Amino acid sequence: MKLPSTAALEKIYGESSESVKRYESLAARYKELFGSDEMEFFTSPGRTEIVGNHTDHNGGKILAASISMDTIGAAYPNGTDTITIVSEGYKNSVVIDLNDLASVPKNKGTLSLVAGMMDAAKKWGFKTGGFNAYVSTQVISAAGVSSSASFEMLICAIMNYFFNDGKMRCIDYARIGQYAENHYWDKASGLMDQMACASGGTILLDFSKNDDELCRHVDFSFSQIGYDLVIVNTGKGHADLSEEYSSVPLEMKEAAAAMGAELLCERDMDELIRHIPKIGNDRAILRAMHFYQENKRVDKAYEAALKDDAEALLEAIQSSGRSSWEWLQNCYTAQNCKEQKITLALALTELFLEKSKKGVCRVHGGGFAGVIACVLPKEETEDYVNYISEFFGKENVYPMNIRLFGAGHVE
Question: What is the pTM of this model?
Answer without folding.
Answer: 0.92
